[in-house]
Design goal:
Blueprint lengths: L13 E5 L3 H12 L3 E5 L5 H8 L4 E3 L13 E4 L4 H13 L3 E4 L12 E5 L2 E5 L6 H14 L3 H18 L7 H10 L2 H7 L2 H12 L5 H4 L9
Parallel strand pairs: 1-2, 1-4, 2-3, 4-5
Antiparallel strand pairs: 6-7
C-alpha cells in the first residue's frame, strides 16, 4: 500500500493554491470549508476567486508564481496546466518539507486527494491510488445515491448525545455499548423518516429520561440558542 490514509486538520493553517482557473477555484472552495487560511497565486483568476478576495476570504496575488511563495506554508496545491511550472512547485515544496498536491499529476505529489461523499460531518473517501480518477468519481456517484442526508443528521445526534454524557461525568469507555444499542434500535431509519416520537422513546429506553431529539439537535441545547 503506497498511501497512508489520513484526515488532516487544516483549520487556521496557511495553504497555497497556485492557479486561478476552475480547478484552482474548486480546490480553494474545499480548503475554505475546512477553515484554512488560503493564498492564491495566479496572473489570471476566475470571477469567483476575485469575489473571495474582495470579501477577504482569501489572499490573492495576481502575478506569476515564485519559489518563495511556498515558504511557511502547511500545504501547497498546484492547479495549473503548465507542466514545467507544476514540477517547479513540487520541487519547491519538497525542498521545504511541505505537503504538496499537483492536480491530476500523482507522480509529482506527496499526497493525493480522494473523491469524497460528504453528509455534514460524515465523510466517505474513495481512492484509486491515482490510477483511475474516473473510477473514483463513478464510485462517488454510486455512494452519493446510497448515503443520504440522514447520515449527517445521525452523526450530529450521536455527537450531541456524547457531549451530554461527558458533561454528566459518564466514563467514555461506557459510551460504546450505549451507542451500539441506539444503532441496533434502527436509529438511522428513524432519523431518515423523521420519527422524532420513536427516536425519543429509543433515547429514553437506552439513556434514561431527559434525552429528546429536538433539544439535542439545537445548535446549543444547554442555552437554547
Amino acid at each position: 500500500m503506497r498511501y497512508y490514509p489520513v484526515n488532516l486538520d487544516i483549520q487556521g493553517r496557511s495553504c497555497l493554491v497556485v492557479g486561478g482557473g476552475r480547478v484552482g477555484a474548486r480546490k480553494v472552495e474545499t480548503l475554505l470549508k475546512c477553515n484554512a487560511v488560503v493564498t492564491v497565486v495566479s496572473p489570471e483568476t476566475t470571477a469567483q476567486l476575485d469575489r473571495l478576495a474582495d470579501d477577504g476570504s482569501i489572499r490573492l496575488k495576481k502575478r506569476p508564481y515564485r519559489s518563495s511563495d511556498v515558504e511557511g506554508r502547511f500545504m501547497v496545491i498546484g492547479a495549473t496546466d503548465n507542466e514545467r511550472l507544476n514540477r517547479q512547485i513540487h520541487a519547491d515544496a519538497e525542498g521545504q518539507n511541505v505537503l504538496c498536491n499537483i492536480a491530476d499529476r500523482p507522480e509529482i505529489c506527496n499526497f493525493i486527494l480522494p473523491a469524497i461523499v460528504q453528509r455534514g460531518d460524515f465523510m466517505l473517501a474513495i481512492s484509486t491510488a491515482g490510477k483511475s480518477p474516473a473510477f473514483a468519481k463513478h464510485m462517488r456517484r454510486l455512494l452519493e445515491a446510497q448515503f443520504g442526508p440522514e447520515y449527517g443528521k445521525l452523526l450530529d445526534l450521536m455527537g450531541a448525545v456524547r457531549k451530554r454524557l461527558l458533561a454528566e461525568a459518564h466514563e467514555p469507555e461506557a459510551h460504546k455499548p450505549l451507542f451500539e444499542q441506539l444503532i441496533a434500535g434502527d436509529l438511522l431509519n428513524l432519523v431518515k423518516e423523521g420519527r422524532t416520537d420513536r427516536i425519543d422513546r429509543l433515547l429514553e429506553s437506552v439513556l434514561g429520561r431527559g434525552f429528546h431529539y429536538d433539544q439535542l439537535m439545537l445548535p446549543n441545547p444547554q442555552s437554547g440558542e
